[in-house]
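W.,

You were right to be curious about this one. When I first looked at the sequence I had no strong expectations either way, so I just let the prediction run and decided to look at it fresh. Below is the sequence, 139 residues in total, followed by the output.
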Amino acid sequence: MHRPFTRAWADALREAINSDATYKSAAAKWTWPVALVLEADPALGYEEPVAVELALDRGTCHAATLVAPAAITAPFTLRAAYPVWKQIVTGSLDAVTAVTMGQVKFTGALTTLLLHVNAAKALVGAARLVPTAFPDEAT
């Protein structure tokens, strides 16, 4: 089990993406890095915002790097608070709906994201494969 937005979780996410045939197929034409940003939540041990930058290219994740949000170079960034990310990862909130409703702040070309909505949904599906230990749940 991996705590979200940690080095171990990012590594497990990269492995899940690369082993997911659904993602590989859906993202065959996606060629851009994506950054996922978790807002600071000191009560849960996230003193500062943290980001996982995914080097995605045609169905493969070449790297998943933990970075400070100021160091993001990806052209697409999705930023949300912990409860929103948890709902997305557990499947109780659709990521695309969260973007359109403003629960996830998105930077980048929205038209590109919408053209590749199946890749985005498959990416979330891969994230659901990562064994995640949510810090707000009793262990």
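Here's what jumped out at me. The chain is about 35% helix and 20% strand. And, maybe more interesting for your project: The domain at 7-127 is CATH 3.30.1050.10 (Nonspecific Lipid-transfer Protein; Chain A).

Coffee later to discuss?

I.
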